[in-house]
Amino acid sequence: MGFYLLKRLGLAFAVICAVVLVLFSLLYLIPGDPATIALGPRASPEAIARYAERMHLDEPIWRQFLIFIGNALTGDLGVDVFSERSVTTIVGERLGFTLALVGLGMGWAMTLGIPLGCLAAVRPNSWLDRVTGVLSVSTIAVPSFLVSIWALLIFAVHLRWLPAIGAGEPGDVVDQLRHLILPAFAIGLSWVGYLARMVRASMLEVMGETYIRSARAFGLAPRRVVFGYALRVAILPTITLIGMGFGGLISSTVFAEIIFARPGIGKLIFDAVMARNFPIVQGGVLVATGLYILVVLISDLLIAWFDPRVRESL
Amino acid sequence: MAKDTGTGAGAGEILLDIRDLSLDFRTPRGRVKALRNVSFPVRKNRVIGIVGESGSGKSTILWSILGLLAKNAEVTGGEIRFEDRDLLHASEPQLRAVRGEEISVVFQDPMTSQIPVLTYARQMRDILYRRPNVSVAEKRRMAVEMLAKVGIPDPEKRIDQYPHHFSGGMRQRAGIAMALLTGPKLLLADEPTTALDVTMEAQIIHLLQDLQKELDATVVLVSHNLGLIAELCDDVVVMYAGEVVEAGEVREIFHSPQHPYTRALLECDPARIDDVSRKLPVIPGDIPDLTKPRAGCIFAPRCQRVQEICRTEKPPRVARSPVNMARCHLLAGPAHDPDWPPDPSVITVGRGVEADATTHKVPAEQTLLEVSDLNVQFETVGRISAWLKGLETRHVDAVLDVSLTVRPGETVGLVGESGSGKTTLGRSVLNLVAGQAGSVRFEGQEIRAMPEARFKPLRRDMAMMFQDPVGSLSPRKSVRALITEPFLIHGITGVDLDAEAERLADMVRLPKPFLSRYPHELSGGQARRVGVARALALNPKLIIADEPTAGLDVSVQGEILNLMADLQAEHGLGYLIITHNLPVVRHIADRLAIMYLGRIVEEGRTDAVFAHPVHPYTRALVEGVPQPDPDRRRVHVSISGEVPSLLNRPKGCDFAGRCPIAQDRCRAEKPAHVTMPDGRRHACHFPLT
């Protein structure tokens, strides 16, 4: 187990290094001097010289790379070109908004999608199964930005039930929650479909296993057989899917964040790219990547916790 | 268990009564009438065996007792009376109260019938869920007690383990403990030993006998294994294609079978045939199509004694006593034959195409395959992991110093339990697994570690018959494509593939229309024939057959073995047959090699090995086979324990831990291979004399 964790952390470090390498070379692949690119064509020579010194631009590239990695490891992701604030602080401020959005979106998708998949699998070809099938395909097919816009139009503009944009008053939890509902609905909807389909497929397979027949032959109640036995095995591939989905959503919530004008990692990176604010791009992508790796690791550990065979092979 | 079956026939209270049960399965091909008017009583405190081949409906009866039939099943008539209730018409909650509590089940395959992600403690506590006033601690105590009773060592600790921590035999013991936990009135056992090795099977049979005696349980045992039935049962019901053809007390069934099918089934069992004539008896034909069962006797198309009346009229139920009955026209009515059944020494069934069996020629002197001191190792841990954990060796010896020869025209049987390394040995001969040391010579040429490019032409001379006949065929290819595939693989052009397909189909006696079928449309025996045809396609010299009769019914396995023998006589093939089935290998092999934990412990001529085993393990295997004769029930189990893991191979003799005659020397020193004057070889410090 300890060895396994060590191996996974080593791999994670390798992935992060590769990402940093790509981010780092970005500056040099774009034609022109990095300092001029960063500060714009009208920057004064003094500003460029100051910037070059601060960014160690006069050092050889490999040293610059090592310095960047070293700084990143100690939590220093550089400084925003415009506001001169620390990138770590800026990313940290937005991270909470993104995590709340992704957590709520994935959360409601799980609470609806997993039971739907189970019930559909227990009664194949029933009306519930058919409705679930149609529903999941349509929610997967509709793009989430379209869902966002429709949700915004219907619930915020037309019905005026919920606020349309922003993240709510700082400190007012109820207001913030009200602002979360529409974007969370929009990003979670297609996941209801994914999860229902996935759980249904693996449940159908598991329900055909002989140990399920054994459990029924011992007279266990149907609810216990479905949720206590079959789901315990059928959920395993779904956990991986949820982990990858959760990790992916951290950056792909950008649609919802733009449409609902919410602060968040995705929107931060998007805006920084538009403004050629490279330190923010680098810092933001690095944090998103790290989170992705962390979430996938957690989902793998969760599988090990559920399945003793996996646990012992670690 | 072996009660005096002669007394008070028909006596005993009836616990479960199946009356006129008929059942259909709705399938795309139409309604399969899987059970037709099945009736038999299950008497209290007795063991009743339901015996039949695949498709006879024996398992369907079990599941209809529990009300756990597949969704496409439909009961069309009859009743199943359990005490005073009719289970067929009970509601789901009523049935659920019966399941596990009053009627419990021991399942066929303990590897798949226990949920892998829950501990035994949890699984057994769940079974006791209907007792709200029993505390969790008390339930655990009950479970531990039951595990101890079925012979699981250290149950207090092992109850917190998961099924994959248990070996096959231990899992089946745990399965029995789970079934008995609630103290059921009726125990159903579905092929309880089929998935186990011979020595494990013997132990489980012994356990079931003891428990039945102790608990005075009523048991319904479903099996195709006549030995198991003879060993355990008081009463027997013989099923064929969804009908009960004969029922009665075990001695009557085995010693004086009345129905031609029962008779044929017993004659086909290799374990009962004493003369080693190489040609095994078979029941020609296939199980009939049950979507439209025929008017007369269901067995008529395959019966050797069929009369005109058998094809038109249902046979009468002829009872010799209140408990013994058979349905056959030969026993009563216009077709009554006073000379039926004939003396037990008369064989009533055919012996394949050429009945003049003993065309057994002496194998040639040159060798086809020569394996000497072969070692195959498997890596168990990665390099870094081993270094971190400070392990000295990262390998296990799957095959250890094995020497073996096969001559042209000779059949060598490689026998061992699961984990003995027999399949690995077969694969390394075909270069599918790389050996680390030793040599493998094929026609004098060293082939171990030969690069695939050079080895490929040699593959044409060696062919493999795989264990799972259906699973080893691509489901998307027709039989024609499958049996001509070897030509394509070896890039052989200039042959008429259609003509070759027909030639091969002819050779394995597969009717031509089957060439356009797909694997799922074949029966087990037919799929096996396709496997043989594939192996033969390029006229090989050596065939390695991995469990050639696994999963086949008794009446069909004779056909396959006879076919293999005919082809050998015709083409001078050398066979290396990998199997755990001793009764079968006794009939077909010239020589036997017994493997245990990757080593050959004994090797010699088949008749000599069976008549007089030298190694204690061989003796345990030979004695472990349940005999299909209720008068030859065993009273003891010759060896206990289980095959140790390759990871901790004993220092001395591998078998020392289970050997009844092991001495200190056996535990300290690995016995070397010794060749005896008659050419037999063994690896034992104290060979049996």
Strand order, largest beta sheet of chain B: 6-7-8-3-9-10-12-11
Strand content of chain B: 15-25%
Q: Give the tally of β-strands of chain A.
A: 0
Mean pLDDT of chain A comes to 86
Reported by name, the CATH topology of the domain at 14-116 and 183-261 in chain B is: Rossmann fold
Order of helices and strands of chain A: HHHHHHHHHHHHHH
Question: What is the multimeric organization of the chains shown?
Answer: heterodimer
The poorly predicted ranges of chain A are: none
CATH class of the domain at 14-116 and 183-261 in chain B: Alpha Beta
The first-level CATH class of the largest domain in chain A is given as Mainly Alpha
Radius of gyration of chain A: 24 Å
Strand % of chain A is under 5%
CATH architecture of the domain at 14-116 and 183-261 in chain B: 3-Layer(aba) Sandwich
Brief overview:
The complex is a heterodimer of chains A (314) and B (689). With 314 residues, chain A is mainly alpha-helical.
Describe what this molecule looks like in 3D.
The complex is a heterodimer of chains A (314) and B (689). Chain A contains 14 helices and no strands. By secondary structure, chain A is mostly helical. Chain A has 2 domains: 2-73; 92-264 and 290-307, MetI-like (MetI-like fold). In chain A, 36% of the residues are buried. The mean pLDDT of chain A is 86. With 689 residues, chain B is an alpha/beta fold. Among the domains of chain B are: 14-116 and 183-261, Rossmann fold (3-Layer(aba) Sandwich), CATH 3.40.50.300; 117-182, no CATH class; 468-539, no CATH class. Helix content of chain B is 29%, strand content 21%. Chain B has 22 helices and 24 strands. In chain B, the strands form 4 sheets. An 8-stranded mixed β-sheet of chain B has the order 6-7-8-3-9-10-12-11, with helices on both faces. In chain B, strand 21 and strand 22 form a beta hairpin. In chain B, helix 15 (479-489) packs across helix 16 (497-507). In chain B, 49% of the residues are buried. The chains are: A mainly alpha (314), B alpha/beta (689).
